[in-house]
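[Discussion] Sanity-checking designs against the backbone

I'm trying to build intuition for which residues belong where. Below is a structure token string of 520 positions. I'd appreciate it if someone posts a full sequence so I can compare it with mine line by line.
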């Protein structure tokens, strides 16, 4: 009887949560339909708090509630190498790209990260290659979120995995298609708060019952002392600094290569937003990033016979914590999954509609038609994701790390070069994208980490940098880029008509470069 009551409480809490998300989507639907700029970038109107929380919650994903705790449960304190990098990821991302990418994207009139690269380096080939890489691996990323969604809801509701998957993903697709970018970022903001409240509350309760961190470590040592080593259980990674460095770097700098994350720089209200966003993001990170891993450590003691490591947090919630706390925690799990899924779907729809359809199929598409195409693209991406996720590909951890790594290795070096380098050009960028992404794919598929003791992300990063250096001498930079970069660095004020979005409302493909040069 108690279990039935608990299920009803959880279901009611979660039902209210889902309905709230749908209301947000409906609320923003009218504004989203006004123009393609509103639908895809929210009219570049985001303030610091929303920018920070949407950037972080969309970056964290279901990995933080399933993949991360599973790694901690299996490898012990070694898992925190990923957390150490993650804790500073937002600061690095906003500090390196924030202001400059905001200014540059406005000058170029770019509404998507892939369109931005094409215009910055004056190369349709970059848009084609970038779109292909993005679509393939954003899908891989969202498959992992859908799988996590199905698993979490299956545990929460008792429904079959496929039915739970359809319910969870159906809500995500509904509010994303309806409300566009503004619905995505504001639901991310809400979900970011729920994520922190959920994991911190459970962690405090857990530490009280386990005697604090020292008590937890003492009990873990009784199970297996090697769990407390930074080299993993049974010292599996002892001396492998190439693996450790890659684990730290993938989340400390890798976010700068994720299209669905860097687009947040482009949607900020102004460059002044960056400073406040860094403060909010850094605070949120310190409260959140380490906690899911700590819950994984608790499971070593509390759930020694757990069959599926990725179910650490849902199982802990039901077996050891009070009903309402369990409901909040499971809502936090879904918040992490949804906040990443909606962002990826939004970005996939943007690439399909703007970077492929508008660029190569119908260059004269109207604003209304582009909004409709974007919505259909998001819907199609979601349907494909559900079909694949029903068959449950590899683990959430493996799929996220792989997709994250390939995207980061493909785009991080080009994005950083786009706002700092006057020598970078289309040949160097293409070489960096292909060399970095392909290296990560080969390293992962052939399990070269076990042979070279070099993390796939670190190997891909090295090859991406080399690709840029080798390719640059064979290309030519755009003639106007020196002046633009100087003004981006020095904080040049964008022409009034661009700042008010007039040119984009009249024609998304307006030649903003010409207007910028004329204003000099």
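Best answer:
Here's mine. Compare freely.
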């Amino acid at each position: 009887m108690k279990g039935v009551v608990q299920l009803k409480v959880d279901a009611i809490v979660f039902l209210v949560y889902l309905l709230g998300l749908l209301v947000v989507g409906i609320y923003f639907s009218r504004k989203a339909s006004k123009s393609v700029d509103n639908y895809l970038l929210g009219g570049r109107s985001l303030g610091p708090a929303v920018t920070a929380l949407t950037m972080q919650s969309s970056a964290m994903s279901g990995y933080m509630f399933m993949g991360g705790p599973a790694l901690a449960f299996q490898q012990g304190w070694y898992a925190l190498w990923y957390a150490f990098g993650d804790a500073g990821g937002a600061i690095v991302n906003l500090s390196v790209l924030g202001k400059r990418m905001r200014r540059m994207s406005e000058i170029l009139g770019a509404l998507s990260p892939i369109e931005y690269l094409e215009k910055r380096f004056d190369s349709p080939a970059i848009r084609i290659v970038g779109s292909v890489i993005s679509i393939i691996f954003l899908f891989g990323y969202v498959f992992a979120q859908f799988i996590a969604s199905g698993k979490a809801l299956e545990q929460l509701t008792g429904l079959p995995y496929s039915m739970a998957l359809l319910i969870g993903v159906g809500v995500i697709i509904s509010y994303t298609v309806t409300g566009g970018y503004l619905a995505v970022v504001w639901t991310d903001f809400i979900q970011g708060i729920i994520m922190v409240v959920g994991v911190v509350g459970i962690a405090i309760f857990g530490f009280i019952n386990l005697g604090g961190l020292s008590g937890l470590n003492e009990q873990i040592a009784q199970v297996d002392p090697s769990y407390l080593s930074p080299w993993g259980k049974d010292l599996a990674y002892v001396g492998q600094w190439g693996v450790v460095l890659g684990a730290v770097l993938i989340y400390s700098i890798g976010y700068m290569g994720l299209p669905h994350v860097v687009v947040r720089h482009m949607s900020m209200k102004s460059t002044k937003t960056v400073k406040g966003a860094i403060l909010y993001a850094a605070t949120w990170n310190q409260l959140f990033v380490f906690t899911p891993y700590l819950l994984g450590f608790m499971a070593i003691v509390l759930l020694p016979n757990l069959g599926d490591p990725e179910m650490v947090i849902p199982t802990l919630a039901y077996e050891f914590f009070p009903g309402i706390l369990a409901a909040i925690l499971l809502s936090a799990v879904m918040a992490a999954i949804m906040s990443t899924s909606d962002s990826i779907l939004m970005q996939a729809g943007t690439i399909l509609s703007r970077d492929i359809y508008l660029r190569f199929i119908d260059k004269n598409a109207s604003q209304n038609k582009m909004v409709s195409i974007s919505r259909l693209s998001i819907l199609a991406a979601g349907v494909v994701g559900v079909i694949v996720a029903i068959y449950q590909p590899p683990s959430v951890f493996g799929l996220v790390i792989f997709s994250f790594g390939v995207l980061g290795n493909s785009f991080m070096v080009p994005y950083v070069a786009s706002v700092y380098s006057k020598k970078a050009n289309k040949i160097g960028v293409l070489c960096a994208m292909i060399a970095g992404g392909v290296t990560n794919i080969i390293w992962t598929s052939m399990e070269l980490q076990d042979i070279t003791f070099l993390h796939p992300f670190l190997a891909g990063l090295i090859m991406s940098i080399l690709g840029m250096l080798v390719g640059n001498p064979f290309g030519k930079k755009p003639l106007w880029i020196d002046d633009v970069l100087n003004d981006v660095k020095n904080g040049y004020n964008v022409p009034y008509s661009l700042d008010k979005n007039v040119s984009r409302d009249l024609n998304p493909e307006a030649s903003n470069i010409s207007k910028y040069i004329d204003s000099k």
